[in-house]
Amino acid sequence: MRFIDRVAWLNVREGKVLGARSRGNDVFYLPGGKREPGESDVDTLRREVREELGVDVLTGSAECFGVFEAQAHGFPPGVLVRTACYTAEFVGEPTACGEIEELGWIGHEQRGLVSVADGLILDRMLAAGLLWSRP
Question: How far apart are the C-alpha atoms of 120 and 125, rounded to whole Å?
Answer without folding.
Answer: 9
